[in-house]
């Protein structure tokens, strides 16, 4: 039986008086691609930020491979192998593509290992290799999204946390990015994906959690997601 990489138990997060997450529990097992699907404002980003340590937890526990990490700062969670791709294709615009990638590998000292990671990400994103000396701010929106993903992969993650990667991208680029995620999953990488686009989530995920107003209302598989009348109406426009 696969080991749990991430386990969230009864997690609650509030912004002043607004409850973002309400006693939420879930698991992501080694080798899985798990997606959390919900409308804008459902709490998806708050969940990912809580796991990586960017928002304060009100109550509950976050475990990485059975180890409670609630009190760990974000950089320590990264050293455990938790890599995070924030929504909005966030890169360092005044640094080159190469410089952005090197920031993703900041915790490694072995130059040969870093070189191998660089070859790996360039094999996935050949356009970034072509543009490695360009300032990141001069890239297109799709290229910046790819750079954000590649920078996270430079950290050699045990789990890749991806927040709303399809947001603002043209359909063709959404397809490209999800193809990359699917290929990474097939290579054995554990992925936790926050996504509004239920169609695309169903194409890559092994399991899917449906989040509404900070609560998980259902756990299902891709087939169940596409066949559920409520989900079809709320998330698939059917």
Short overview:
This protein is an alpha/beta fold. The protein has helices at 44-52, 74-80, 97-104, 111-124, 126-130, 141-153, 171-186, 198-204, 222-227, 229-235; strands at 4-15, 18-29, 33-37, 59-64, 67-68, 82-85, 159-163, 190-195, 207-212, 215-220.
Topology:
Elements: E1 4-15, E2 18-29, E3 33-37, H1 44-52, E4 59-64, E5 67-68, H2 74-80, E6 82-85, H3 97-104, H4 111-124, H5 126-130, H6 141-153, E7 159-163, H7 171-186, E8 190-195, H8 198-204, E9 207-212, E10 215-220, H9 222-227, H10 229-235
Explain the overall architecture.
The protein is an alpha/beta fold and 238 residues long. It folds into two domains: 1-81 and 157-238, P-loop containing nucleotide triphosphate hydrolases (Rossmann fold, 3-Layer(aba) Sandwich), CATH 3.40.50; 88-155, no CATH class. The chain contains ten helices and ten strands. Strands 6-7-8-3-9-10 form a six-stranded mixed sheet, sandwiched between helices. A four-stranded antiparallel sheet has the order 2-1-4-5, with helices on one face. Helix 3 (97-104) runs parallel beside helix 6 (141-153) and helix 7 (171-186) packs parallel to helix 8. The termini are far apart.
What features would you highlight for this structure?
238 residues, Rossmann fold, 2 domains, 10 strands, 39% helix, 27% strand, globular
């Amino acid at each position: 039986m696969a080991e749990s990489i991430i386990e969230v138990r009864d997690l609650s997060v509030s912004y002043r008086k607004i409850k973002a997450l309400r006693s939420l529990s879930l698991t992501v097992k080694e080798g899985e691609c798990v997606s959390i699907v919900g409308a804008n404002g459902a709490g998806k980003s708050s969940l990912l930020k809580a796991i990586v340590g960017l928002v304060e937890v009100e109550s509950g526990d976050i475990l990485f491979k059975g180890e409670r990490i609630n009190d760990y700062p974000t950089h320590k969670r990264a050293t455990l192998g938790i890599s995070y791709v924030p929504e909005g294709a966030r890169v360092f615009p005044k640094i080159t593509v190469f410089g952005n990638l090197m920031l993703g590998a900041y915790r490694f000292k072995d130059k040969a290992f870093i070189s191998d990671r660089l070859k790996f990400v360039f094999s996935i994103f050949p356009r970034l290799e072509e543009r490695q000396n360009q300032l990141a701010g001069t890239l297109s929106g799709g290229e910046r999204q790819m750079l954000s993903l590649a920078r996270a992969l430079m950290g050699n993650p045990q789990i890749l946390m991806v927040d709303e990667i399809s947001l603002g991208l043209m359909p063709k680029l959404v397809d490209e990015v999800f193809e990359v995620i699917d290929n990474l999953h097939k290579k054995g990488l554990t992925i936790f994906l926050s996504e509004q686009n239920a169609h695309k989530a169903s194409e890559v995920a092994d399991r899917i959690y449906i989040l509404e107003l900070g609560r998980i209302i259902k756990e299902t598989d891709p087939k169940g997601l596409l066949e559920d009348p409520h989900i079809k109406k709320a998330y698939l426009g059917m």
